[in-house]
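Translate sequence into structure tokens.
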Amino acid sequence: MTELGAFLLPAVPLLVLLICLLCGRYPGCEAIVRLSERLATRSGSRAPAARPLTPLRPRSFAPGGGLLIALGLAQRPPPLLA
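Result follows.
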């Protein structure tokens, strides 16, 4: 009996959700709609903040941090980038 209980106990929430979906009820649907409406009104009421235009630094492709240590301790150099 304990094996059956150990199997059914985790399966009960799944079965309840499956029964709700088969009956046409979608749990959490109202909460999702309320949350999306709240987010839509919040983002629409605020004016977007103006970012100061700063020139972007070019990306460095040199290894750094742990990768630099790993490459220094490697037995052979890394393959050349084509």
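Note: Residues 2-22 form the longest helix (21 residues).
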